[in-house]
Design goal:
Length: 170
Amino acid sequence: MAGESLERRVAALEERVSRLEAAPRAPRDEVFWALEGLRRRLTGSGQVLFTGALELPTGEYYEWQQGAVTDGLLDADWSQGAASYAALGHPARLTLLRAALHGTRSAAQLQEAAGLHTTGQLYHHLKQLTAAGWLQAEGRGHYRVPAGRVVPLLVMLAAVMPTEDRPKGE
């Protein structure tokens, strides 16, 4: 009996493998469409590209892309980016950026959204973010993420999010 059960299980597995192998697959250029476009434009030893098109909850729409030759990136002084990365290295600052992208722009609303207890705490974090260029002041006591930083911010977030927390898709 145990032999029959094993034979049935093997047969079922063989059938599943056959169906998987016969299933239509998207051509490589459909799966890696952005990568294929980059490959057509490659120079030197390679390039990296990040791009995005999105509408924020505020209704603001952004299309943006940036590329870089890898030789230049590998040879660059990486410490030049330290202040920008450091500005993102605090949960309160990330909360402030997320709130700003969702339309919370006034200092009082941002303070509440980040759960900061004093205006001193708020302005400490706002100073870090504005100095690094992640936020810019617009008018008195109002802040926004500059247009040229929206997609890079979301790309960086996507790069560090655990795979299981990322939206399903391409």
